[in-house]
């Protein structure tokens, strides 16, 4: 849908009763969020890694390439997903192995 591919592992897990499903209204937003997977800003040092958030200029490029450049609602939804992801990513901080 919209040229966005949802990874089969997610689609199959939802299809097979794996605990969650994606509402059709959210498929495009999830696809854009997943397409932004390489756009995370992180801070590494002092024995840990901290996720700071998405690189918004990078998110803008992804949205433009997927023809969602003017979709402010989608950007807002992506920010909500980002905030939820940050809470999970930063809750599981692990020290960087020292050499």
Helix content: 40-55%
Characterize the overall form.
Answer: globular
SS strand fraction: 5-15%
Q: Please give the domain count.
A: 1
Q: Order of SSEs, N→C?
A: HHEEHH
Radius of gyration: 15 Å
Mean pLDDT: 81
Uncertain regions: pLDDT < 50 for 5+ in a row? none
Structural class estimated from helices and strands: alpha+beta
The count of β-strands is 2
Q: Going across the major beta sheet, what is the strand order?
A: 1-2
Q: How far apart are the termini?
A: 46 Å
Summarize the biggest pleated sheet.
2 strands, antiparallel
How many helices does DSSP assign?
4
Task: Please characterize this protein's 3D structure.
With 99 residues, the protein is an alpha+beta fold. The protein has helices spanning 8-15, 27-35, 56-65, 72-91, and strands spanning 40-45, 48-54. α2 crosses α4. 11% of the residues are buried.
Summed up, what is this model?
The protein is α+β, with helices and mostly antiparallel strands.
List strands and helices in order, with pairings:
Blueprint: H1 8-15, H2 27-35, E1 40-45, E2 48-54, H3 56-65, H4 72-91
Antiparallel strand pairs: 1-2
Helix pairs in contact: 2-4
Keywords:
single chain, 4 helices, 2 strands, alpha+beta, 99 residues
